Amino acid sequence: MLIIGEKLSIMAKRVREAMMNKDRGPIQDIATAQWKAGADMIDANIGPAEEGGESLMEWVVTTIQEVVPLPISLDTTNYRAIEAGLKVHNKEWGRPLINSTSNDPERFPILELAAKYNAQIIGLTVGKGGLPADAEERAAIAAEIMARAMEYGVPLEDLYLDPLVLQIATSQDHALKVIKAIRIFQELNDPPMKTVVGLSNVSNGCPKQLRPILNSHFLSLLMYEGLTAAIADPHEIAPTVKTINVILGKTLYAHSYLEM
Amino acid sequence: MAFTPPKETYIGRVHAVTIGVGDKTVTFGGENVLPFHTFEGIAPNRPVIAYEIQDIPPTDWPENVQKPYEGVSNDPVTWAKFCQDVLKVKAIALRLIGTHPDRENRSHEDAARTVRDVLSAIDIPLIILGSNHTEKDAPVLVAAAEAAKDRNCIIGKAQEANYKTIVAAAMANNHKLIAMSELDVNLSKQLNILITQMGFDRERLITDPMCSALGYGLEYTYSVMERIRLAALTQNDIAMQPPMLGDIGMYVWKVKETQASETDLPHWGPAEERGMAWEAVTAMVLLLAGAELLIMRHPKAVEVVEKVIEELI
Hints:
The complex is a heterodimer.
Chain A: E1 2-5, H1 13-21, H2 24-36, E2 41-45, H3 53-67, E3 72-75, H4 79-88, E4 97-103, H5 109-117, E5 120-127, H6 135-152, E6 159-162, H7 173-186, E7 194-198, H8 211-224, E8 229-232, H9 234-247
Parallel strand pairs in A: 1-2, 1-8, 2-3, 3-4, 4-5, 5-6, 6-7, 7-8
Helix pairs in contact in A: 1-2, 2-3, 3-4, 4-5, 6-7, 8-9
Chain B: E1 16-19, E2 26-29, E3 48-54, H1 63-66, H2 76-86, E4 91-95, H3 108-121, E5 126-129, H4 134-147, E6 154-158, H5 163-172, E7 176-180, H6 185-197, E8 205-208, H7 218-234, E9 245-247, H8 248-252, H9 256-259, H10 271-289, E10 293-296, H11 299-312
Parallel strand pairs in B: 3-4, 3-10, 4-5, 5-6, 6-7, 7-8, 9-10
Antiparallel strand pairs in B: 1-2
């Protein structure tokens, strides 16, 4: 399973300050730590970035890729900032990922960027009308996003469907609906559609000591259903990913498997 | 519509390992496909067969496999030169069986002297094997590794019980290393991990999942080798990407089918031919399972296997 490191988010105070002051040190330290812990990709979340988004994304992408040989997930709703990031992204380290489009007409044009820059893209299964009620509604939205992706010339194997993980503390019934959605999404195409979750949202708002427990166990169930990628903290989930891969027979067992 | 054969794609690759020095080096491994599946990817090197010799006369070998070495096998240096100059072999495997406490219990100094003498007589690559006595192999292989310093040999075999000393000696003297575990894919992976955790470069490692002869558990070796190779190629398991060794001769030439005379068992046919066939078939099976390096005894068996390799690549 692909691990997309979530720690470079503008929501975190240290990251926000570094982004505001264009201070490369913390950005590079956090990116490097995630890479070393097993991240396959780094999520660069610059928020809506309505002002100066282009130069900020450009700076973040080049700053990370200067020290970490990984592709970047460009996490913002700002179309121009995404394009600026795609332009400077070093493809030698892999293809970039756009995070994200959805079924909201305002987010459709982002698909153009994926086609134009040969990027992968996350399709968040929400529309303009609010949160999806269940797995079936998520699948219906997913089908619409898939149709639109084909319209815009984005190959379906470049689309990652995201069922939108909700907080267990406030929307407990959605945990199971998300798991079911991961299963149904894959059935929407042959070869199966790729899937992704923003994992830690499940424990958002929960006491700090519970968060890794909730995240890891939720991830186990999602991996069992065939989840392709997770935006998560690689330090926190590495033992779970390795263990589930052993249990699912994707990695050969050895006593030291956790150290690999 | 023309038939298009289905092709698998693999995500991993077996390490290529080069042994020896100067213009006599040989390289094996390096493929990113299952054995002989060259239509699906690349296999840049053909499997290598090393001829087995030993530090003491091979009185424990059946007569039919002693015969090709008559007159030279009393001395490892003459024997090695015969292999190199007359048989034109690509590599030699010197087994220091005389160091075994139940055999002649030769000292590690003796072993080092033999290694030095053999190396000064040949310029083709050398594989240096202990006697498979885990305690004795530690000092013997350390001395042997030092005696062979910078000749880029293979030292073996490091096992769970003695790997630390042997790994350190192989590292200090720039050799490749055989890691052997006993017919268990998980323990094989674990030993490779432990060895690389000591700082030994995984690209200098060779895996020996333990051999067996046709009719005597060969299917276990086959299955373990197959699983190792599938992990290397389809799961990109870096601990399982070293090339694999089939140490055939010593397992084949001790079974009843290679020992029994035609007088005792006339319906089994001529003993020499039977022995060669047994060794050749065992070797071919392991090549099909994924072995890249073989250690064999009978020149005629090697000849047959080389011919089949030629046809398959």
